[in-house]
Amino acid sequence: MSSLHILNSANSDPWQHCQALCQCDDAIVFYADGVALALQEDKLKTLNENGVRCYALQVDCEARGVQLNRTLVELIDYDAWVTLSTQYKNSPNWS
Length: 95
Description:
alpha/beta
């Protein structure tokens, strides 16, 4: 069963646990300080190759001056986040 993982902290411990549990057809939404983690392109590339989609909240990226590799991470707004949350049965929050 696919999950939408929610990351809102730049802390490495939750990020490592999240990566370890992500499976094919899961997705990750980075928001708040968590958008800084979406700069780790090598880890995102591995996740993408394993069938995990990555998203980041655009307003939080803009507020923090974070510019992401758009081939690895899709920028979304709040409406898109709500839509995503309806497409996944589980939504674990990593903070």
